[in-house]
Amino acid sequence: MILVRVDDYVYKRVEEIVDESRELSMTKSECIYALLKVFFGVNKPPKDFEKIRELTIKMRKGLL
Hints:
By secondary structure, the chain is mostly helical. Helices cover 64% and strands 0% of the residues. The two termini are 26 Å apart. This is Ribbon-helix-helix protein CopG domain-containing protein.
């Protein structure tokens, strides 16, 4: 199990996606898991590592 803290924007987007997917009875955990599966599916090693580093640097600089 991984617990993460997210900003208001990410929280609201996940809430919106879950709310708009009522017919699936999607949970927030399923939504986030699907997003991560897609990210890692598109960005194979070592590209995934490089992309995570790039996004982390941008996030810390307030560019994301």
